[in-house]
Amino acid sequence: MDISQSSLFVFHLLSVVCPILSGLFIFALRGNRRTTNYMSLAHLTTGVLLVVYIIQHYNTPYYMHTLWEPVFLLTILLVYPLFFAYIFALMHPNPIGLCFWLVSYVPLCVLILLGSVFYFTGQPLPSITDYDQLDEFLTNPLLWCYFAAIILWLVEVVVFVCKGLQMQQQHSINLLSDFSYTEGAGLGWVRWMIGIMVIVSIVSLLAILFEGRLFKIIALLTVSMESIFTTIFVLRQRDLYQYTAKKESESGGFFKTVIHIGCYNGERASMEDFSIQKHELLKQNLLQLLEIDEIFKDSELSSEKMREMLGTNRTYLWQVINRDLGTNFYNLVNSYRLKKAEELMTNPSNENISLKNVAEICGFKSLSAFSNLFHKTYGVRAKDWRKNINSQQVENSIDDYR
Questions:
Q1: Which of 17, 60, 79, 62 is nearest to 211 (CA)?
Q2: Residue 21: what pLDDT?
Q3: HEC per residue, 266-318
Q4: For the residues 135-158, what does the mean pLDDT come to?
Q5: CA atoms of 51 and 57, how far apart (whole Å)
Q6: Contact 65, 57 (CB under 8 A)
Q7: pLDDT tens, residue by residue, 202-214
Q8: CA gap 17, 51 in Å, rounded
């Protein structure tokens, strides 16, 4: 085995080990969750299919290995919908519907049909780089079916990318309506992940169409690096809508978010039935939770949790917060947190409490989150504001003594 053959063997091994370990790590560290299961299954499927390929070609010299085989396209067509299902599930409060899966696996069905014909006829695929067989290649209807599967896959990737970027942009807007924090809730990395998916698609396409060993190595290396990077993203990302999907959604629409219209106190009603009396009652209960129960101290507080406490739905809560109070969920909750922080810092008995503890008591997830929001709201750093308050209190106490 020469150096190049050894190198190809190493890259084959990496392309198998990295996805399998990534899938196991995600499942072991994040548990059995709806969103992360998509990514875990995608990695495991990739590793298993590549293992099958290596076993099938165990006695084949490595210089004869080719990516111009249905098993590689099968891997892509089977795994890519799972990758994008994870991205969409993070940004979508409802479960992914059947329509998504049916549309996503149309290219896979074409390839399976093609593979079945090959299996029963025993007809091999001619090489795309063997120009002596070019006439046979162009006149082979099965090859055109194979190309049809590739084209459908490329169209599918373009649709997924456009939809993912659109949903990521919309999520940035919804973030302030659904969460009282931004740490771990932002999905800016989704653009990077989609970019990685596009690179993998381009490299995989080149590796399929051209049988040069360099393209094989690049393709296998890309699969390995993609597994590592996506695993890092997944392990750092929290599941944002795990409660909504279970408790609030009746059906899983993918292309359109369907709002589950329930009623306060558990009765179903239309928007017209949401009377002024119930509206005022919801508003009073909301203010009671914030002002008396101080639920804003929960650093993980989200609109989902608040709706569960109030027994209402997204539409009614949005009406109270946006229309009546003139703000959004994020600003409403954090205004109470900042007000509480002011009370703590102006109390002389709390002089020895650090700013970090003040942030934790008030419900901020970190000192940096508290400091940044305080500075953005008041135009001064919390540390400097506290010093000024303490110095004024000392001057007042001296004046009183005199």
A1: 62
A2: 92
A3: HCCCCHHHCCHHHHHHHHHHHHHHHHCCCHHHCCCCEHHHHHHHHCCCHHHHH
A4: 72
A5: 10
A6: yes
A7: 777 776 666 556 6
A8: 9
- For residues 63 and 209, what is the distance between their CA atoms, to the nearest angstrom? 16
Cα 312 to chain centroid distance, Å, stands at 26
Tokens of 355: 């700013």
Measured in degrees and rounded to the nearest 5, phi and psi for residue 142 equal -65, -35
Report the chain's mean pLDDT, rounded to a whole number.
76
What's the whole-number mean pLDDT along residues 18-41?
87
- pTM reported for the whole predicted model: 0.70
Can you tell me which residue has the tokens 């569960």? 308
Single-letter code of the amino acid located at 5: Q
HSE on the CB side for 342, CA within 13 Å? 12
- Give the residues across from 302 on adjacent strands: 179
Q: What percent of the chain has pLDDT over 90?
A: 16
For the beta carbon of residue 142, count every other beta carbon within 10 angstroms: 16
- Cα–Cα distance for residue pair 218/247, rounded to 1 Å: 45
- Angle at CA of residue 79, ends 75 and 81, nearest 5°: 135
Asked if the model's pLDDT at residue 319 lies above 60, the reply is yes
Q: Which amino acid is at 368?
A: S
- Give the C-alpha separation, 339 to 321, whole Å: 18
